[in-house]
Amino acid sequence: MGQHSPARTQGEWWRSAVIYQVYVRSFADGDGDGTGDLAGVRARLPYLAELGVDALWFNPWYLSPMADGGYDVADYRVIDPSFGTLAEAEKLVAEARELGIRTLVDIVPNHVSDQHAWFRAAVAAGPGSPERELFHFRPGRGEHGELPPNDWPSQFVGSTEPVWTRLPDGDWYLHLFTPEQPDLNWAHPAVRQEHEDVLRFWFERGVAGVRIDSAALPAKDPDLPDFVEGRDPHPFVDRDELHDIYRAWRAVADDYDGIFVGEVWLPDTERFARYLRPDELHTAFNFSFLSCPWDAARLRTSIDETLAEHAPVGAPATWVLCNHDVTRTVTRYGREDTGFDFATKAFGTPADPALGTRRARAAALLSLALPGAVYVYQGEELGLPEAEIPRDRIQDPMHFRSGGTDPGRDGCRVPLPWHGDAPHAGFGGDPWLPQPTGWSAYAADHQAADPGSMLALYRQALALRRTEPGFGDGPLTWLPAPNGVLAFARTDGLCCVLNLSGKPAELPAHSELLLTSGRLDTEGRLPQDTAAWLRA
Q1: 316-336 tens-digit pLDDT
Q2: Per-residue model confidence (pLDDT) at position 187
Q3: Would residue 161 show up in a list of annotated catalytic residues for this protein?
Q4: How far apart are CA 429 and CA 425, in angstroms?
Q5: Is 95 labeled as catalytic in the residue annotation?
Q6: What is the chain's Cα-based Rg?
Q7: Is the pTM of this model over 0.90?
């Protein structure tokens, strides 16, 4: 038996919150143009309240050419017209709060759009201008400057494209992602000031927090040296200068009781925890759990390591099964390889949807029983599978920058099904990404009427999590269990059991069976790939 006891402070809602991720473009289309929008979200707020979530995290909804799904921001103070207006965003934030739901927005500090006013001015101003100092412009190497300034790899896994683009005037500019996303120079005080002002802009409009995209990337070695595998410090990942930036951001957030969640992909747990010190970020995404295979020993290791790396800084863990960048949970757990790795994504990978659904139901109860906060990506509560997008309809730049070998991320971004008997499954107009045949079978209205549906399971689990104080942030104690079975206790006599052993498992002694992800067998045992919540 082992016990983890992270600090718990009353009133810190974010330590135990269930946060629902809204990818606006694919959530609900209010005006019938085929693209999800704020009107669609506002119309579905009662659904989200009934689901029982504490907060909504919105992927970027700002003005953008959409070269990378909105992560190429042209203006943080303007809502993209395809989504609505700033006034609508303010209404959405207020209406959600009236229903007890907080709002988080997305900030992308590493780069902006090539259509951002700063970058357009920099291009127009020419080499050596002050405007270009806001970015990373450099002359090229080679006899005529025809070679890129360095050899850094792209941050799109599998991409064969360079991270430098040359302008007609001879200068090159850095973009770790697409050429439409020029990297900002965070050594420049104007860059820091602008982002602190953007934070204030949104906190003033009532948002409760900010998710930070690619949070370990913004700071660069000022010399921009060539990349050498294993050299420390890394020239553009997890540089020490970042912590000064986030300490300044924390000071802004504290003025509004705002919170941060960082997207921090780091293998070094000690360096990961530095971002969660009390004067920096409140939380960070837990990617080891998201990518972990469906294996009892490896899941337990991931849980133990996650709780251990958060404990020294008193930060709550976060748990997430899926997001807008990774393969849908139902599909991933139905494959032979149940882990996730960008480098192994491929077209035509077979999956067993029934097996994946059974495991996804159990994983939902597992994640919602663990200490800390939980993120639920839209459509997970409907049990949506990953869609196979026809090659001629793929829009994700990750696909194109891989030379066409990577299927990209569009398969988890297909517009949601709301009404089974309506055109386009009730999403709205002809969707910007095609919905697969049979998508209506997953519609929310059908599932709401089915007590055995994935939606019903999520609603029951979230209702219990809200009413049972033993869930959320707090201690976890592992219980003795057979090989392949995970069993742990929370406070107030609550416990969770997950059977991955390959045969039915006896449940521990209990006074009440609160919820199961699937039926018990005729002898009252927990079947394979099934989870249960119990009261001792």
Answers
A1: 999 999 999 999 999 999 999
A2: 98
A3: no
A4: 10
A5: no
A6: 23
A7: yes
